[in-house]
Amino acid sequence: MKLFRWMAAATVASVGVAQAEVPELLELVPEAQGYELIAKFNPREYNSKGYQINRSGGISGKFKRLGYLVKLTDRAGKMTWIFTAMDPFTANVGETVVPDPGSFSFQTYVDNLEVASNVEGVKNGKFEKGNVEIWGNSYGGFNAGNIPGAGNACDFGDSMSRDGSYGSFQVHNYLEKQTCFAFNKFNAGGSCDLGIGNAPGQHPDWTFTGSGNQYKDAVIYVVGKFDDFQVRGFVELDGNRAALVGRTDKPPLTYAPGETMTFTLQADYQGQKPDGEYFIRWRRTGDDRQTASGQEKVSDQPLVIRTSLDKPGFVRIYATLVDKFGKSVNRRTPAGGREALFFDGGAAVQPEKLTGTPEPADFDAFWTKQKARLAAVPVKYEMRKLPQSNAKVDVYAVKIDCAGPQSVTGYLTVPVGAKDKSLPITVHYAGYGYNPQRDKAPNGGPVDRISLCINAHGYKLNGDRAYYQKFGETIRSNGKDYAFDPIQNSDPEKAYFNGMALRVMRSLEFVKVLPQWNNKELVVQGGSQGGLQAIWAAGLDPDVTAARFGFPWCCDLGGEKNFRRISGNWRIEYVKALDYYDPINFAKRIKCPVDITRVGLGDYVCPPSGVTVFYNNLKVPTTIRYYQGSTHGYVPDTPEIFVRQK
Predict the structure, then answer these.
(1) Which of 353, 374, 405 is the last residue of a domain?
(2) Known active-site residue 528
(3) What is the pLDDT at residue 3?
(4) Residue 439: which residues within 8 A CB-CB, separation 6 or more?
(5) Among positive and negative, which fits the CA dihedral 362, 364, 370, 373?
(6) According to the UniProt entry, where is the signal peptide (predicted)?
(7) What values do phi and psi take at 56, rounded to 5?
(8) Contact 552, 611 (CB under 8 A)
(9) 530: exposed, middle or buried (C-beta count within 10 Å: 0-12, 13-18, 19+)?
């Protein structure tokens, strides 16, 4: 009966007529009559699926009352819930749902708060006031709103940051010093912060708890009461069938100091005719540390941004499509998540003149010492043939003794029947992280060469998820993920990169003792952290004959501190000892041709300025490709590619 009533209500609402109750709410709070559904979503899936229902763009009428129903079902099947209702804190229904970074935000009192819940300890009843903390940015515990009774932990009185994307969707009963409910860390999927009532521990508003993992199901309903309520079908722009394209008025690497750079940004709806207005929101940053921003309504004419830079360096333009409430138009990612439809690109002034932090005076002596440490450990190894082998290629799990904390581990493929000294070798190095999906053995391999794929850590192969989780904890340092601890990095022989570099050198020593190697061709390759390792390989072993990699990590680590160059969030804090591992200092020691397959002009995990310094320091034949509009993990369907060679 209830299901039928909801289906009928949805059908009527779609043609713009009448009111209907929300049966899921009435089942728990029978007196909560007259509420209309505004939106419904699973907070554990919000990052990947967004809303199950979102009618906020099509609702009209006088907004009288706002409510949130939160239902959480734990792993044992127990369901807890809370319903909070209040006078609206905004006249715009579209601002009652989950915000995006930089869109609408509210840290305000609300009148006539009502609370009903089955959670022990939650104060039920009617209260003169409450407060909400709703924003898409990150935040801290400082009581910026002077909410009575709030402290410096994350509770019912916090402070929103100007940037970041952690997110807060919280209703509080500050009179009772209580969080009613909280949904934070919007993009974390099942690891979001989620809870009813005060959280145990340091932060009562559930911040940093990752508590979404406690639940097998969760749903949040946004509801409202209206006079003269109507809802019409509202056609939103589908970000999966749209594009935001950016271009420069000339090749982006050819500007002179002070010359005007003209960027044009054009929204392409690809035939869609959405309701409502959309806007291009943009922000300019650069290696001059100057910023500018703006927003302009989408039209048939491109948005034009003019800027300049008075010295060698890069300018970045980041832009998104947003609706009238400032919420981003989203699209699916290849991994199944969601992200804003964006343009992230840039241009440069005299990139050929960029230089980096000088190398340590004892750079070569340091690496001579590390090679001596490695030489003290014989090249002993285990090769275990795997069932992934086939008639053409043998597949092996390998473990190679190494100096430092871990052995070298990975997968080797060798064509069946290969004669001695007959085959080239390619060694592949892995990007950042560790997980069982990445660590699967290959099914077969190339038939024209030997291939070795090693992980960066030397962990046990083919472990279960619990093993990798435990391993990840063992390589953290002072509460930071591996390689990110400035205290550990202050000693170059204790830095996490030290063991990683030793394993890189040992991997090359191993493949060179294989009898099938032709003693002529030894190629190294990788991307991001894998590119960093490939650079170490080519710079430390003169037998490497070619290096191919994209968007190499950690180039010009001192660039932000020493030259005030811009970088992104995924940046290791610079300390002087890291100069021993910076690719820019290996460049002049590389003796083989180098192919840099991709540098994103919007990639600020591996900023284009740093990769350019690396390129400038190379003394060998090199090709580098800059992709306009490309970030670390995204490449446009039809990118503009700009090639430099030497």
Answers:
(1) 353
(2) yes
(3) 26
(4) 455, 459, 461, 462, 463, 468
(5) negative
(6) 1-20
(7) -60, -30
(8) yes
(9) buried
Calpha distance 606→614 (Å, rounded):
12
Joined tokens for residue 70: 């939160």
Q: pLDDT-derived band of residue 334, with 50, 70 and 90 as boundaries?
A: confident
Strand 278-286 versus strand 313-323 pairing type: antiparallel
Of residues 558, 616, 585, the one with CA closest to residue 367: 585
Given a cut of 90, whether residue 440 has pLDDT beyond it is: no
> Considering only CA atoms, which of 530, 506, 521, 356 is closest in space to residue 431?
530
Q: What pTM was estimated for this model as a whole?
A: 0.86
Residues 214 and 280 in one domain: no
Q: Are residues 55 and 192 in the same domain?
A: yes
219 and 174, same structural domain?
A: yes
Helix (H, G, I), strand (E, B) or coil at 479: coil
> CA–CA separation, 456 vs 453, rounded Å?
10
Question: Do 244 and 226 share a structural domain?
Answer: no
Q: What letter does residue 228 receive in the DSSP assignment?
A: E
613 Cβ partners below 8 Å, 6+ apart? 354, 355, 356, 555, 556, 559, 584
pLDDT for residue 21 is more than 90: no
Residue 208 tokens, joined? 């940093």
Q: Report the CATH number that the domain containing residue 247 is assigned in CATH.
A: 2.60.40.1930
Beta bridge partners of 316: 285, 346
- Residue 437: is its pLDDT beyond 80? no
In a domain, 645, yes or no: no
- Residue 302 burial class via C-beta count within 10 angstroms: exposed 0-12, middle 13-18, buried 19 and up: middle
The verdict on whether 308 is a catalytic residue reads no
Q: Among this protein's residues, is 603 annotated catalytic?
A: yes
On whether residue 611 sits in a domain, the answer given is no
Identify the domain boundary among 305, 320, 353.
353
Q: Are 16 and 230 in contact (CB under 8 A)?
A: yes
Please report the pLDDT score of residue 598 as a whole number: 98
* Inside any domain, residue 624: no
What average pLDDT does range 367-374 have in this prediction? 98
Q: Number of folded domains in the chain?
A: 3
Nearest of 567, 559, 549, 599 to residue 252 by alpha carbon: 599
Phi and psi dihedrals of 304, rounded to 5?
Answer: -115, 130
Section 258-265 average pLDDT: 98
Give the chain's length. 646
Residues 435 and 303 in one domain: no
Q: Do 223 and 263 have their domain in common?
A: no
Q: Determine the Cα–Cα distance for residues 575 and 495; give it in Å rounded to an integer.
A: 11
Report DSSP letters for 373-423, one per residue: HHHTS---EEEEE-TT--SSEEEEEEEE--SSSS-EEEEEEEETTPPTT-E
Q: What percent of the chain is modeled with pLDDT above 70?
A: 97
Tell whether 639 is covered by a domain.
no
The overall average pLDDT reported for the chain is 94
DSSP 187: G
Considering the domain architecture, whether residues 129 and 180 belong to the same structural domain is answered as: yes
> CATH number of the domain that 427 lies in?
3.40.50.1820
Identify the active-site residue in 528, 567, 609, 630: 528
| pLDDT tens-digit map of 523-576 | 999 999 999 999 999 999 999 999 999 999 999 999 999 999 999 888 999 999
* Residue 269: DSSP 8-state: -
* Annotated catalytic residue within 328, 556, 603, 609: 603
DSSP annotation of 517 reads E
- Say whether both 371 and 284 belong to one domain: no
Structural domain of 544: 363-594
